[in-house]
Amino acid sequence: MKPTPRLSEFLPYMLSITSNAVSGRIAQEYRTRFGLKVPEWRVMAVLGDAGGLTQRELTALTIMDKVAVNRACKELEERGLVWRQPNTKDGRSHLLELTEDGRRMHGEIMPLALEMERRLLSNFAEEEIEAFKALLVRMKAEVRDLHAEGIDSGIYDN
Question: Does pTM top 0.85 for this prediction?
Answer without folding.
Answer: no
